[in-house]
Amino acid sequence: MGAEGTQESLETRELRYFLAVAEELHFGRAAERLGMAQPPLSRAIQQLERRLGVRLLERNRRGVALTDAGEVLLHEGRAALDAVTAAARRTRRSAGADDPAGRRNRLVLAVKAAASHELLHKLLDAYAAEPDAVEVEVLPSGTCEQGDMLRDGRADVALMHAPFNSLAGFDSEELLTEGQIAILPARHPLAARRTLTLADVTDIPDLPLARWSRDGTFLPGPGPEIHDQTQLAQLIALGRTVAIFPDSARAWLWAEHTAVPLTDAPPVITHIAWPAHSRSLPLAALIRTATRL
């Protein structure tokens, strides 16, 4: 291989090493995360810099910082590793190698827990009636995890919700537009109102807004940190928090909950989204079914 080809090639092992250092900004912590000693990790990064002909990291006594070139490789490297991981996962899934029962060619559909309940039921029932339908495994996710699941191959297709989910890098079809509601404890005084505004909901002294994790970080605020829909439902029923959801969330409300429409909340648009490069025939059939609904 010529010098130019060598400079332009990257190994997945090198990317994993670099990403660990770039994310930790500390060689010791990165080595511990990778399960290796620090000296060989340092040598591997130095060899990578020499081969690429650029400095990726600035090292000093205070720690490690990314150069401009390092920032580029951090962004591009994450996408590249996700693509490699996704290819491996989808290849194994197509052959049933990732399933104890050996089920082949099944589709994994990522959905936000407790969202689009009625639409999801209709979609699964309609697709199951198709003559060449394959099994669809529904994979519940957190608030904004569907995109990550598509990128790294944990899911083949997802129901995503604008403006909360980014559709960048995916193909998608719009399925449903709906308003938003506040879900309150049924005994709270505001539960008797016919409508509310966002200001009404975010400024309740005795009922702080629930906080979901986005990219592993909980949004700031006094409300409780929410990890799943069951926890949220119980805390609302106990009068500890309030939450904002699309109108379709009414499907999972308890008797101790009340839903009140929000007059000034932006509409939520549900899309079915999938990787732009997908060539899966079962996926194409599922998307056709979804758009007919």
Automatic annotation (TrEMBL):
HTH lysR-type domain: residues covered: 10-67
Keyword Transcription tagged: yes
Recorded superkingdom: Bacteria
UniProt xrefs under Gene3D superfamilies: Periplasmic binding protein-like II (3.40.190.10), Winged helix-like DNA-binding domain superfamily/Winged helix DNA-binding domain (1.10.10.10)
Membrane-spanning ranges: none
Keyword terms: DNA-binding, Transcription, Transcription regulation
Claim: Ion transport is one of the keywords in the record: no
SUPFAM superfamilies: Periplasmic binding protein-like II (SSF53850), Winged helix' DNA-binding domain (SSF46785)
Family per record: Belongs to the LysR transcriptional regulatory family.
Name of protein: LysR family transcriptional regulator
